[in-house]
Amino acid sequence: MRQHIPAEYPAPFLLLIRELRRLPGIGPRSAERIALWLLQSRNADPLRLARTLNEATQLLKNCSLCGFFTTEDLCDICSNPDRKRHPLCVVETAHDIIAIERTGIFHGYYHVLGGKLSPLDGIGPDQLRIDLLLERVKSDHPEELILALSADVEGEATTHYLARLLAETGVSISRIAHGLPAGGGLEHADELTLSRALAGRLFSW
Ligand SMILES: [Zn+2]
């Protein structure tokens, strides 16, 4: 008698599940559910999704100055001269810019570091956009620089590192501090908390 081998999805289906599992927060069961929905639901339009994803990856790039998303060389924020009359705010990710913009109280411009110092993960100053920040501060002479990094150990270490490094430029440096949850990144703060953190920033240097 031949051994019974349980049937499996065909290879292209398994490949789709494998790709979906690479998405953040998606486990094997969710990946399978999403794959089934994409291929079977009348409301799904997987080809449109594929097209949109393809276009987004082709059209979007990082602003050559601040690192935010853009379809041009410079993003809308860096192209707006009014922004430079206000403080320069340093954040870890492009997503943090959106979080701060949604508070509606900050009218300055930004610099995305692309992460925070984390020696254990092999992330040192050279892996972040720190050189570019120093160049920008020296050429723009912002009247104030706000360090809006997360309140965890790496965020604190990065804040201190930058404050020391930028001290030579003579720029006035402050940091957001009040109300941010310890250990939390900006993306976890609600708009009111973030507004208060920006408004009540500490002038530590
Ligand atoms: Zn920009």
Quick overview of this protein structure:
The protein contains 7 helices and 6 strands.
Describe the structure.
Strand 3, helix 4 (about 95-100) and strand 4 form a beta-alpha-beta unit. This protein has a four-stranded parallel beta sheet with strand order 4-3-5-6. It has a two-stranded antiparallel ribbon with strand order 1-2. The protein has two domains: about 10-60, Orthogonal Bundle (Helicase, Ruva Protein, domain 3); about 60-200, 3-Layer(aba) Sandwich (Dna Topoisomerase Vi A Subunit, Chain: A, domain 2), CATH 3.40.1360. The chain has helices spanning about 10-20, 30-40, 45-60, 95-100, 130-140, 155-165, 190-200, and strands at about 60, 70, 90, 110, 145, 170-175. The longest helix is centred in the C-terminal third of the chain and has 15 residues, at about 155-165. The chain has about 200 residues and is an alpha/beta fold. The protein has seven helices and six strands; from the N terminus they run αααβββαβαβαβα. About 40% of the residues lie in helices and about 10% in strands. The protein is elongated, with a radius of gyration of 22 Å. The structure holds zinc ion (ZN). Zinc ion binds near residues 65, 74 and 78.
